[in-house]
Amino acid sequence: MFEDTDTIWQIHPLEGLGQIKFSMLRSEVDQFSAAIGPVKIDRSDTVQSQQAGLDELYKMFPDFFSAEDYKAVSEAITEFGQVRDDTILEFRPNGLSFEYTSGALTEIFADENCKNLQFMGVPVFLCEPVILLKELSRSLQEQPLIYQQEVIFPVHKIYLYAFVEELDERGKCQVGSSGHRSISWRDSVRPNSVELSQYHPLYFD
After folding, report:
1. What is d(CA 123, CA 138) in angstroms, rounded to the nearest whole number?
2. pLDDT tens digits along 171-181
């Protein structure tokens, strides 16, 4: 169906990845497995699985999450988690994963194992983080926002973690530690996210 591995890895904000489009069914996305790799594992995102995932994440990266952070997310899962009971998460071995809600693709996620991922020809995980953020900002004509280690482009529903980290509330940042970087993008507002009022405009020198 689709064989061009150079273009399949292009991020298209609000649209998808290459020819993989938001709102596609799992069976439609699976037709691209020759290019993006087969499904390694999938799971339903029930309240119980969300809490278990949070517990596992907290154990793996205790330095990144305070007890207050853990409590806040856990309470959010209890309060809002039921709305994600129709959500399926699908993981592929190259660091790429997909989220489906009511059977339709709603979010794409990639971590540092996804070396082929690009935006406008810029390799997401192989270039300097600030260069990537500047290119995103220039191309999207949107100023990014930052909160701790997360940078977001709220209009275009793009979320980057650990590329840079916040130094102060004036929008200054420094390069984050590699090894935990990830990016996700959606076609709609992210559920259960930090209030936008917690973020600050990110400025580049």
Report:
1. 16
2. 566 777 666 88
25: left (phi over 0), alpha (psi -120 to 50) or beta: beta
Alpha-carbon gap, residue 55 to 113, rounded angstroms: 23
Quick one: pLDDT at residue 5? 47
Going by C-beta distance under 8 Å and a sequence separation of 6 or more, which residues neighbour residue 162?
149, 176, 177, 178, 179, 180, 181, 182
Report the 10 Å Cβ neighbour count for 109. Answer: 19
**Whether pLDDT at 127 is above 50:** yes
Cβ atoms within 10 Å of 138's Cβ, excluding its own = 10
Residue 162 has pLDDT above 80, yes or no: yes
Read off the pTM. Answer: 0.76
Q: Which two tokens stand for residue 137?
A: 């900002």
Residues linked to residue 87 through DSSP beta bridges, in sequence order: 101
